[in-house]
Amino acid sequence: MSSRVQIITEPVDISRSIFDLLGGEPGVRALVDRFYDLMDIEPDLKELRAAHGPSLDEARDKLFWFLCGYFGGPDHYIQRFGHPRLRARHLPFSIGIVERDQWVACMGRAMEDEGIEPALVERLLQSFFGVADWMRNREG
Ligand code: HEM
């Protein structure tokens, strides 16, 4: 048995930030817009949509600002609102397994629609799943 580390995922170019790989601000904006467009129209994401208010406009801006910093770009969210404290900020919304899974599925479809490289999609979905799971605040 070789002592080499087993490579279990496709390699991703780590010489550039994820922010750059996604096309900077225009790329992140397009991803977030596709994410909320899908949330608005896809019948199998209806519980996730119902957890949001009538308008998704504020959520679009906030997720865009947040993801720019999360992916290694400018810290627009922190400059406006301070530390993200995502779990605390999500406590007003009921989040269980259904909402977690619909959020991650919605993001996966949005990334595919935006033509993001499959190896990067896979890696980002794993990381988003961890965050979304930690956001759960309801049994079931
Ligand atoms: C990886 C998972 C997630 C990330 C990165 C994320 C990110 C964010 C961010 C940055 C905000 C803005 C917070 C603020 O300043 O008020 C937000 C708001 C919100 N999130 Fe999430 N979220 C995630 C998962 C979820 C899930 C699973 C739900 C399910 C219900 C959810 C529902 C909401 C709602 C309802 C808002 C308020 C939108 C508004 O202001 O109109 N989020 N989220």
Automatic annotation (TrEMBL):
<dbReference type="GO" id="GO:0046872">
    <property type="term" value="F:metal ion binding"/>
</dbReference>
<keyword id="KW-0408">Iron</keyword>
<dbReference type="GO" id="GO:0019825">
    <property type="term" value="F:oxygen binding"/>
</dbReference>
<keyword id="KW-0813">Transport</keyword>
<dbReference type="InterPro" id="IPR012292">
    <property type="entry name" value="Globin/Proto"/>
</dbReference>
<keyword id="KW-0479">Metal-binding</keyword>
<dbReference type="GO" id="GO:0020037">
    <property type="term" value="F:heme binding"/>
</dbReference>
<keyword id="KW-0349">Heme</keyword>
<dbReference type="GO" id="GO:0005344">
    <property type="term" value="F:oxygen carrier activity"/>
</dbReference>
<dbReference type="InterPro" id="IPR009050">
    <property type="entry name" value="Globin-like_sf"/>
</dbReference>
<protein>
    <submittedName>
        <fullName>Group 2 truncated hemoglobin YjbI</fullName>
    </submittedName>
</protein>
<dbReference type="InterPro" id="IPR001486">
    <property type="entry name" value="Hemoglobin_trunc"/>
</dbReference>
<dbReference type="InterPro" id="IPR044203">
    <property type="entry name" value="GlbO/GLB3-like"/>
</dbReference>
<comment type="similarity">
    <text>Belongs to the truncated hemoglobin family. Group II subfamily.</text>
</comment>
<dbReference type="Pfam" id="PF01152">
    <property type="entry name" value="Bac_globin"/>
</dbReference>
